[in-house]
Structure formats: structure tokens, C-alpha cells
Design a protein that fits this description.
Layout lengths: L3 E4 L9 H6 L7 E6 L11 H10 L4 E6 L3 H10 L4 E5 L6 H10 L3 E6 L17 E5 L15 H13 L5 E5 L7 H7 L3 E4 L1 H4 L4 H18 L1 H4 L2
Parallel strand pairs: 1-8, 2-3, 3-4, 4-5, 5-6, 6-7, 7-8
Amino acid sequence: MAVQINPSILSADFSRLAEEAKAVEGADWLHVDVMDNHFVPNLTLGVPIVESLSRATDIPLDCHLMIEDADRWAPQYVEAGAGSVTFHAEAAAAPVRLAREIRAKGARASMALKPATPIEPYEDLLPELDMLLIMTVEPGFGGQSFLDIMLPKIRRTRELISKHGLELWLQVDGGVSAATIERCAEAGADVFVAGSAVYGADDPAAAVRMLRNQAQEKTATAAWACGH
């Protein structure tokens, strides 16, 4: 399974986004957190910034929508240039229809779950998705501490993916750092969003390489990967 590192621009300097995108060359995706101050208590950026970013970098954009009325807004982020769009299960009225619409427009469809939202009710939806995001902090703010209580949920999700034989990426977001990424990889994650661990480093590109190496080494010996 290929490990992917997605730096989060939520931790970047918003006045220099084009330069900050270039600072993480070598990353697999650039993670863009979209917050509306309703679904989560914070306000970040929207469609116009995503359009600008898509023109400023060759790194594909992974847009994480922490917004209400995802069914209405998510397709617009595909049109703005996102290569992957993540909507929250808690904010989607018709998640299967929405995932199919995102895919039909040419992007990867992903669904996110807040820490308190269980994976099991969504088992039958997994074939409709390209990625599932397990939040390892409460969404809304960067720089939070990793919630270790999410590790069993990551393991259960990986077991469901394996049970159905799906080529589904399993992403984690929140508190991912050199101190936590190996635990996430061992539990079953293969896509890692890292904000302050990358943009808070003296050399963001080197931080991406270090995190990738850690995750790859742990994945190589993880039970879930060895039996895949």
C-alpha cells in the first residue's frame, strides 16, 4: 500500500499560499481545509482561493469541506480544480448521490467522520467512495493534540475495507506528527494529513520526507498491510 503525505495549508501563511505550496514539493496532495463557521466554529477559505491555488501549484488539491449543506457546495470545489473532495457524513443529506456526483465531475470522492461518529453505519457506502477520512481531532482548528482513542476506529475501518476487498484510501487528519504517525500507520491509515508538523518545521519539504519514511517503515511491518 502506498503511503501518502498531504500537508495542510491551514498551518501555512495565508498571505503567501503560492509560495507555501511550493515549499512542500514532493507531497502527494495539498490538503485544503474549508470551514464555514457553522458546521465548525471557524472560518477559513472558499471556492475562489481553491481556484487560485489550483493555478499556482502542480500538487493536486485535496479539499476537506467542514461545511453545512455539503450536497450543494461540494461539486463546486471540483469545478474549482480540486482533485479530491471530502464531505462530512454529518453534513450530507444524500451521501451516495453526492459521492457519485463528485466522481462524475472527475474528482475522487471522500467522506469524513467526526471523532464521535462510528464507521459501522456507513459500511454499505464504502464502495461508493475513493477515500474515507477519520478525524483524529474535533474538526475546526489546527494544532490540536492527537486523540489516541481514535486508533481502534482506524483499525475497525481498515478491517471493513479489507473485508470488502476495496481499494479505498484511509486518511487521518488531526495531530499527525513524527510522534503519532507510526501509530496511525500501524492501525491502518495510509494517507496522512499533517499541518503544523510540516509547516512548523524549518524545512517543510524535509518534514514531508521524514513523515513519509516513518509511515512507510511502520506500514511494512503492520499486520493489516502484510495480509493485504
